[in-house]
Amino acid sequence: MALPSISVIIPTYGREGPLKNSIADVLKQDYPDFEVIVVDQTQQHTPRVEAYLRQQANLGNIRWFCVRWANLPGARNYGVRRAKGDILLFIDDDVQIPPDYLAAHARNYQRLAVGAVAGRVFDRMKLADAKPGLEIEDLPPEASDPGIAWYHLDLVHTVKPQRVISARGCNMSYRREIFTKYNIWFDERFRGSAVREESDFCLRIRKTGYQIWYDPEASLVHLGEETGGCHDITTRSLQYQVTFYHNHFLMAQKNLTFDEQRRLYVKLFDCHVLGHPPCYKSGSPLKVFVRGIFYGIGFLDALKTRLKELFNPGQIYTQLDHELTSQEGAIVS
Hints:
alpha/beta
């Protein structure tokens, strides 16, 4: 079976050296047919990185698109609309990947039942917290339960290929027809860090009958840089806290049954508000009270987002792209 062509889509925002290194790693791939699409949301790069991006684009090594807004799901969708590959592979702009990375993703698509591949993610900032020698063969049943899977889905220590419920946003790939045939796109209403946007996307893939397959050999190191990327707002800010809960509740309200929602809400409160494991947050009454307020605001904010859906689907960056494309077409004609 011929290897599928791959479009590697890299949304970037506020990154300099790590972006350059990530692109360089992709260009070193030992794979016969791939393209690199950089969706650049950075308003001004350093001269050195600007020159690098321009050089790689002029050489035809990358396709470099600059946009004037910053939204991770919107950037992913923007890249998809311009991609030419059979497989669309998404990575972050601060990763390190081995030379056989693309091949590891591609071989899984020889199985027709596989519609998406979740790769293994080694988080550099979390490796110190990893348990030495821990290897998971089979994920527990809880990792397939949409209500609580997010607290049991370990894509770091799991060493055996298997079907999973979701991928990590920094290391995931999909068949093109997920978008073109089934019209499933990333929801641009996921805000801030866009936490759970990939979970929402993967939950909707279940309707297609395709499997999401985890391959531990399709691995990368996620550097987790403290600036740039989704870190445009501090994790201690009111905006971050509200969007964090908003995104969880939005994912649940869109995809989960009432009982699944109930179990997610209980676990979310227990972990992120009360601070119980695996969150290990302060149990100070004042901090618990403040986190509880954020929790409540996030829930109401998600309900508001859902109500707006009756009048507007919320894909504002896709709509803006279509409008600009139409204007450019009118000018050309």
